[in-house]
Specification:
Elements (H helix, E strand, L loop, with lengths): L3 E5 L4 H9 L7 E4 L10 H11 L3 E4 L7 H6 L1 H21 L4 E5 L28 H8 L1 H12 L3 E5 L2 E3 L12 H11 L7 E4 L5 E6 H14 L6 E2 L5 E3 H12 L6 E4 L14 H7 L6 H15 L9
Parallel strand pairs: 1-2, 1-3, 3-4, 4-5, 5-9, 6-8, 7-11
Antiparallel strand pairs: 8-10
């Protein structure tokens, strides 16, 4: 058992989800770090922080990411910072002789041209979508990092691939947030009146979205039970279109769906990136929270905490 675990990105969505379930893992101590505690872009600072923490495992969740607008405006920053963070965490784990390291990839790294459903083996096939290429290549690099460090240094390091994630502690900041939290905020702030609620694209792209607490439990299962250089899809395969999600949010919030308008002059993003999670399911027997239930929980939390700036990221 890994008794003292450092969770990078501890103030993020999945970091908070691990906080919420940590009592289910008795005998463990968790340290949740954010960029305020340690700048993972700097190797010396990362090594010093991990040494002081005296952990025996890392779950590396920290990343710089965002929606289509953010990805298209800041491609160099996305590529640079994510590559540096991933290499620094891996090198620190090696130098500090950690027992296990869990790295994070993303379904956004896959090319639109690969066969569907997407298998883990397709990671380096084809070019990623142009709206997200820099983040995609940064995440793809995690795969050879894992193989290289396992081969040369015999490190116990694995790579997990979540898909879209929703949950209570999402980033709801305009220009940074991903699709679901962006829509939740937009609908909430425009729930009164009859003005149009504009959504980028035509609404047809399909997305798999997994509840953050499910992702947290998947990480903990893999920390304890998975040890292979093969990256692993850990998200649900339940899919909904952007239009379906928008209408569902409107229904839950009591907003007239006729107010929704899709701006087809704006990019829609990759049409579909459905994944095959059968390797993970066959190993773990994992069960997921339904999207509707996860969305209702997320919206309820958002509405209750909208005015609490110490809790919610707006």
């Amino acid at each position: 058992m890994y008794r003292k675990i450092l969770v990078t990105g501890g103030s993020g969505l999945v970091g908070h989800a691990i906080r919420n379930i940590k009592e289910d893992y008795s005998g463990r101590e968790f340290i949740f770090s954010s960029s305020k505690d340690c700048n993972l872009v700097k190797l010396d600072e990362t090594i010093e922080y991990v040494k002081k923490s005296k952990v025996d495992a890392i779950i590396h969740l920290a990343a710089l990411s965002g929606g289509i607008e953010f990805s298209m405006k800041r491609p160099a920053t996305l590529l640079r910072d994510n590559v540096l963070m991933n290499i620094n965490v891996m090198e620190t784990a090696r130098l500090c002789n950690l027992k296990k390291t869990v790295m994070t990839l993303s379904t956004g790294m896959y090319a639109n041209s690969v066969p569907k459903p997407i298998l883990e083996e397709y990671i380096h096939d084809g070019s990623p979508h142009k709206s997200n290429y820099s983040y995609a290549f940064a995440k793809r690099l995690v795969d050879p990092l894992i193989k290289a460090y396992r081969t040369e240094y015999k490190m116990n390091v694995i790579g997990l691939v979540p898909n879209g994630i929703l949950g209570e502690y999402s980033n709801y900041r305009y220009g940074e947030s991903t699709m679901v939290p962006a829509l939740i905020r937009r609908f909430y702030e425009n729930r009164k009146g009859d003005s149009k609620i504009i959504i980028w694209g035509d609404g047809t792209p399909l997305r798999e979205m997994t509840y953050a607490e499910d992702i947290a439990r998947a990480y903990m299962w893999c920390l304890d039970h998975y040890d292979s250089e093969q990256i692993l899809h850990i998200g649900t395969t339940e899919e909904h279109s952007v239009k379906e999600v928008a209408y569902m949010i409107a229904e839950i919030m009591g907003v007239d769906k006729s107010r929704i308008e899709f701006d087809t002059s704006k990019p829609s993003g990759q049409f579909r990136k459905n994944t095959d999670n059968s390797k993970f399911i066959n190993l773990s027997g994992f069960k997921y929270t339904s999207f509707r239930t996860a969305l209702e929980k997320t919206i309820k939390w958002f509405c209750e905490n909208y005015d609490n700036k110490n809790v919610i990221r707006l």
